[in-house]
Amino acid sequence: MGIEIPMISAIVARMGNAEGQLAAFGGVVFPLALLIEAPVIMMLTASTALCSDQDRIRTLRRFMMWLAAGLTLLHLLIVVTPLWEIIVSDILDVPAIARPPARLAFLVMLPWTWAIADRRFHQGLLIRANQSNLVGLGTAIRLLFTASVLLIGYSYNFVEGAVLGGSALSLGVIAEAVFARIASRQALSKAPAKAAQETCGSCQYIIVEPKPEECPECGSHLAEVGLVRGESSPAMNLSRLLAFYVPLALTPLVVMVAQPLGSAGMSRMPLALASLAAWPALNGLVFMVRSLGVAMTEVVVNQWGRPNAHRVLGQFTYMVAIATTVIVVVVGYTPLTAGWFRYLNHLDGQLADVAEQALRLTPVLVWLSVWTALYQGILVNHHRTRGVTEAVIVMLVLTTATLAVGVWMNSVTGISVAIIAFTVGAIGQTAWLRIRAAPFITQARQE
Fold first, then answer.
1. Residue 231's pLDDT is what?
2. Between helices 349-359 and 309-332, what is the axis angle to 10°?
3. Quick one: DSSP state of residue 71?
């Protein structure tokens, strides 16, 4: 996705009514689509952590299908009922020129959430089976489909830019979902019928992967009371699955709420249309760089607890954080910034100016993204998903407060205030996660 958004922005900027179409896609369609799909984003983490046998795979797959169906229905209800006008006109206060193209573009993205849920579930199976190279191949297929749709649409000019962007995203993720489903067949067939059962030595509570440090039922330290190994474990029931997944799902949901909040804030600050139109090019670049670190979460979930893992993962986090931060600094403070915004993304003078100014505010946000992923992975590995939810609530409160101050002051360009708000929120989120993960980091250092 990090590459797709700049691709879409570059194409849409070269089509008719570029400013309105960019504002429609970047300020309405993409943020709302992200918000609706948010509850399925952690399906990859859940699949990687929980799918140790056929019973658990079936349970999580049924849950994934029902969740995806419900979110797809919600997507449809928003776009075909008066909810659309309430959200776009009253809540987001999107400029009038961007509203008509946004609705049709949002409609063509109807398959988006279901395809992402199915894709991430099967990608988790691949990662668990140490076949992550196939995940990368699926991403390449997705990019190929997305680029092909964009080039065909641009060449024949048969739809508006925002609709073309939504169509390209949907078809790309559908192609990747199909590939992930096919590629994971071997991993699925090799999963045992039932994994061996391990219970707490104190209360006999069934412990599931990934193993926590303390028993979720009685709070005993499992290293002290020990684990009792049985012949096989029962199928994971819905209540245990929800206890694990709901806190995880709330995390991206709260994070994604910040995206339309950012659009609503930019719509009420100076240069509203320019900020919304420039946002896809800026957000695409920042998202692409940050995605190099965000993937750390699944790596940490899978590797934390192994010998010397804490030291290796810590060093690797530093390397990724430095590398990604250097990238945005170099692009933001050299002629590369003009190459990205003015030539590649084809933004005109004012749009490029506001985007370039905002890009120079992003290094701290990019640096923190990698550390957020590390601490989040540690907590998920230890079944402390509540701390992850707490952290994103802190982030949302700080982000909303900063946006409110920007609207009240009404003196700084909306896109710059949005970056500042997301950075302030990220500082609070990372600090909270570090506090929650500190005991497990200390324990790993002492072992």
1. 47
2. 150
3. H
